[in-house]
Specification:
The chain is α+β, with helices and mostly antiparallel strands. It is 52% helix and 12% strand. Strands 1-2-3-4-5 form a 5-stranded antiparallel β-sheet. It has a 5-stranded mixed β-sheet with strand order 13-12-14-15-16, sandwiched between helices. A hairpin with a 5-residue loop joins strand 9 and strand 10. Helix 16 packs parallel to helix 18. The longest helix is centred in the last third of the chain and has 33 residues. The protein is globular and about 95 Å long. It binds zinc ion. The site of zinc ion has 9 residues, from loops. Zinc ion (ZN) binds next to loops.
């Protein structure tokens, strides 16, 4: 855990122009900088950076915030990871909250494995370029496969010498412990206690995590020798679980986000060749059939996936079932077949980037249609096979969470297969029901789980990745949200309604979202915006109980005014701003904007960034200044209109509750509601009386 002082220090030091400039070419425009937005396909510079506010914002897609938000979004890092990233950039030492001895040991062990892997990667890369065998055998092989030198460097491809302990000797002589060399699987311990290399005599492909750390290696033999396996992988370890990794994800994530699409290929050479062709949004599950973890990893960046298959791939049929899993995760799946005898690797060598991309765009086909046609071609007129085919397609359709999409596919497949729609509909509904039941089951289990007393062992999140380099800069990172954090929220229609007894009591008859459209909510946001910008500024003088003159800050004034009428903000986040701001407003040098911009609660700091940066003010800073002078008038006005709108809204909803059948049949309940209504109208009366005396 990083302590708050360090977080503050990092955010204060990080210069937004410098941080953004690492990724975006910025041009000065007035007091700000502008550039092409890295988060959407930007044609005209929409990305504004304000050095004065230390904030950035895209005025087309809305992304931005402070330096931490920018790094989180751009590098797809968690908050603590982004803090560490920036701390490294600015050479700020991270103060950790204390960890237990056990946590430290675990943390260090994992860190050591990454350190050893990185040493190995550097060693293999160095061997490839700077030894005679490396150049004559390894480099020659890559070049003969048509891979350009810049791509060899980008993917950190390497070579392990054709001696079975060359790496082990080097590593041990550099002081790397045997324990970690064995645990990472780089070396194997012989019976006599000596180490031998796992990858010797092979070209080596490092595997990177989504944040660029080396978790594993895959190595290919060069001589066609029947006695040894063509490919050798790192064994699974504390840091490497095969089912969680995708080859190329680190190099692809930006392109996937930008194109909002991910290509999935079969092998790592396909990934590398496609990069060389300029198609960078591509990953491979390499050998394993696709797992749920891998699907969710892709889903962090996009829901659009196109599967690329060799023209003569025998793997298509085998992988069909795995694709249903993609459907059930709510992904949009397309399929592309290369011409007979071609794979992405060979195809990319025969065509330039434009042709390659054009081919994909013109030939990719919707998965369900593809599957229907493929199976129909197999079944021909065999009635049994046709029956199986309908069941199979219906099952795929039944996996799709979105009902409208299911309906569209049902219609299309009925037409392709030349059968009645109802046949597919009935069949697919079985699978929909089954999934709903499974979901109910899971919800039930989760409820039971939550009811159990908390397990102290689970109190701390696991410490995952530790050290790596990014563009040559070592980067440390801490707990990464597990893939579980990225489970897509099921479509509403798939969530069964909660049982009657779980429904909230009738007082909460209004949906929160309805109220956020109400007039009062606009005013509420205006007030919170003023608190975040100017909360600590002295606002007015009042007399306290002893008749002493006392100065109130802006936030204190708002808080007192709301309290007077026993009102509070509707949005919990807004309430948090008020409470926390009130707690700290008399701290030395306290600034609301600084406090909330650097708040560890991401929702809060994002909101603060949003409230601090508006186009109008970013581009015309000079005209913003008068706002400070106007707040004396703005605040009471906003407060008044907030209160009036809020109470009117509350009254409207209270009245509408009276007409609900539950209430009309229940006299006691109806009286309670009427009493509440009168109370509200009394407050409204008070407010208008009070304010009519005040000249605004
Ligand atoms: Zn944008």
């Amino acid at each position: 855990m990083i302590d708050r002082t360090t977080i503050d220090k990092v955010i204060d030091t990080a210069n937004i122009v410098e941080v953004v400039s690492d990724f975006v070419t910025l041009k000065k425009r007035g007091v700000n900088y502008v550039g092409l937005c890295p988060f959407h396909d930007d044609k005209t510079p929409s990305f504004y950076v304000s050095p004065a506010k230390n904030l950035c914002k895209c005025f087309a897609c809305g992304k931005g915030g402070n330096a931490v938000h920018f790094i989180m979004e751009h590098e797809q890092l968690s908050f603590p990871e982004a803090i560490r990233w920036l701390a490294k950039k600015y050479h700020i030492e991270i103060e950790e909250k204390e960890m237990t001895a056990e946590e430290i040991a675990q943390h260090n062990a994992r860190e050591s494995l990454f350190v050893v892997n990185e040493f190995a990667r550097d060693y293999f890369v160095d061997t490839l370029h700077h030894t005679e065998d490396g150049r004559n055998i390894g480099l020659a092989y890559f070049r003969q496969r048509g891979i350009r030198d810049d791509i060899i460097q980008k993917f950190q491809l390497g070579y392990s010498l054709n001696r079975n302990n060359a790496f082990a000797k080097e590593a041990e002589s550099k002081g790397y412990k045997k324990e970690f060399l064995v645990k990472t699987g780089l070396c194997i311990e012989n019976a006599d206690g000596n180490l031998r290399d796992r990858f010797w005599g092979r070209v080596v492909f490092p595997w990177h995590t989504v944040t660029g750390k080396v978790v594993a290696f895959n190595a290919r033999v060069l001589q066609s020798n029947a006695k040894v396996a063509k490919y050798v992988n790192s064994p699974e370890s504390e840091i490497y679980l095969k089912r969680k990794e995708l080859y190329g994800i680190y190099f692809a994530k930006q392109a996937i986000i930008k194109q909002d699409k991910c290509y999935l290929v079969e092998g790592q050479m396909d990934v590398i060749s496609m990069h060389q062709s300029g198609v960078e949004n591509v990953v491979a599950s390499s050998g394993t059939s696709l797992t749920l973890e891998q699907i969710r990893l892709i889903h962090r960046f996009t829901k659009n996936v196109t599967l690329l298959y060799d023209g003569d791939s025998a793997g298509i049929h085998a992988s069909l079932r795995g694709i249903d899993m993609l459907l059930s995760e709510g992904m949009n799946i397309k399929v592309l077949l290369f011409p007979d005898g071609e794979d992405p690797d060979s195809f990319s060598h025969k065509h330039n980037a434009t042709e390659f991309q054009k081919y994909i765009q013109e030939n990719e086909e919707d998965f369900i249609r593809f599957k229907a046609r493929l199976l129909l071609n197999d079944a021909k007129n065999d009635p049994i096979k046709r029956g199986e085919l309908i069941a199979d397609i219906s099952q795929s359709i039944g996996q799709i969470p979105d009902r409208i999409l299911r309906f569209t596919y049902t219609q299309e497949c009925a037409s392709i297969l030349n059968v009645d729609e109802r046949l597919i509909l009935n069949e697919s509904e079985k699978y929909v029901k089954r999934r709903q039941e499974a979901l109910l089951d899971r919800m039930q289990k989760e409820r039971e789980e939550q009811a159990k007393p908390a397990n102290p062992l689970n109190a701390n999140p696991p410490i995952v990745d530790t050290t790596t380099t990014f563009n040559g800069v070592p980067v440390e990172s801490v707990p990464i949200p597990s893939n579980e954090d990225f489970i897509p929220i099921p479509e509403r229609e798939d969530v069964p309604p909660p049982p009657e007894e779980m429904l909230p009591p009738h007082q909460t008859f209004i949906l929160a979202s309805d109220r956020e459209k109400a007039e009062f909510y606009v005013k509420e946001k205006e007030l919170v915006k003023l608190i975040i910008r100017y909360g600590e500024l002295p606002f007015c003088k009042v007399a306290d109980e002893d008749g002493q003159e006392k100065e109130l800050t802006l936030i204190e004034f708002i808080s007192a005014d709301l309290q007077q009428d026993d009102l509070q903000f509707h949005n919990p986040l807004h309430r948090q701003v008020l409470t926390e701001g009130m707690t700290h407003v008399h701290d030395k040098d306290f600034s609301c904007s600084h406090y909330f911009l650097t708040h560890p609660n991401q929702e809060l700091s994002r909101m603060a960034a949003d409230f601090m940066s508006e186009r109008y003010e970013l581009s015309r800073r000079y005209e913003m200044e008068p706002e400070k002078d106007r707040i004396r008038f703005m605040v009471p006005q906003y407060l008044l209109s907030f209160k009036i709108a809020f109470i009117k809204d509350e009254m409207k909803h209270t009245l509408s509750a009276l007409t609900s059948p539950d209430v009309t049949n229940n006299k006691e309940e109806a009286e309670k509601i009427m009493a509440h209504y009168h109370e509200l109208s009394q407050i409204l009366n008070d407010i208008t009386k009070r304010t009519s005396r005040v000249v605004m």
